[in-house]
Backbone:
């Protein structure tokens, strides 16, 4: 078995698109899920190793690491995609919201990177090519968000960790981030919301998951890029 790529939160949207992309390439993958969407069964039928993971508790994170190590002793890459788009308006308990956002978007990647670094180093030693860690952050890190304060802060922490882990693991493991703004709408998004959101970027389109797939492929193929955050925002910073 070739060294797999780990994708967290691959049951839907960007994570699922990445999983299908790698399967089509013949690349072995391990994916995590918290809710077993029908897509997980589909991925499993196509050869993906699907591991339940609950990153909302420290025990859940540690249990996931133990389970993953039963499936492989090396990893080509870890793609931290698992995320929660939660906000203050939906959570009167601000303390719990903040802790949850930090645990899912910062603490889980932090602990997973440390725990799985040996598996990434095993790949590097076997292939003489750097292994990869890729953090999926968010464009909102650049400007903050009055409606998603805890979310934005946790993604900012993840962006900062990109630099620290890049320095720690170089030159054997490259560590980068991808910071998207709008990639795909949800089915329930209203026409009014869609129109308003499209106007926020210079390009004015819903680009689709291919933009993230292309960005991931770029980082995986590079021998040189590390410690960087790749913006995929349609020029939103200029609006």
Residues:
């Amino acid at each position: 078995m070739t060294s797999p790529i780990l994708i967290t939160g691959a049951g839907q949207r960007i994570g699922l698109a990445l999983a299908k992309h790698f399967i089509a390439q013949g690349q072995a993958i391990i994916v995590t899920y918290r809710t077993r969407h029908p897509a997980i069964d589909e991925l499993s039928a196509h050869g993906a190793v699907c591991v339940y993971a609950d990153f909302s508790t420290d025990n859940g994170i540690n249990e996931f690491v133990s389970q993953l190590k039963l499936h492989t002793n090396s990893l080509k890459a870890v793609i931290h995609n698992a995320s929660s788009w939660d906000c203050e308006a939906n959570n009167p308990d601000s303390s719990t919201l903040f802790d949850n956002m930090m645990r899912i978007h910062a603490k889980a990647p932090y602990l997973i990177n440390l725990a799985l670094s040996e598996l990434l180093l095993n790949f590097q030693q076997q292939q003489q090519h750097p292994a990869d860690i890729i953090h999926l952050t968010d464009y909102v890190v650049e400007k903050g968000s009055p409606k998603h304060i805890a979310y934005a802060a946790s993604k900012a922490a993840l962006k900062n960790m990109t630099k620290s882990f890049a320095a720690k693991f170089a030159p054997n493991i490259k560590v980068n981030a991808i910071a998207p703004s709008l990639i795909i709408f949800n089915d329930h998004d209203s026409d009014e919301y869609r129109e308003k959101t499209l106007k926020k970027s210079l390009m004015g389109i819903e680009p689709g998951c291919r933009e993230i797939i292309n960005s991931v492929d770029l980082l995986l193929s590079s021998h040189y890029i590390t410690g960087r955050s790749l913006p995929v925002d349609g020029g939103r910073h200029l609006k």
Notes: The helical segments are 13-25, 38-45, 58-68, 94-127, 149-169, 191-198, 210-221. The mean pLDDT is 96. The radius of gyration is 17 Å. The CA atoms of residues 11 and 37 lie 6 Å apart.
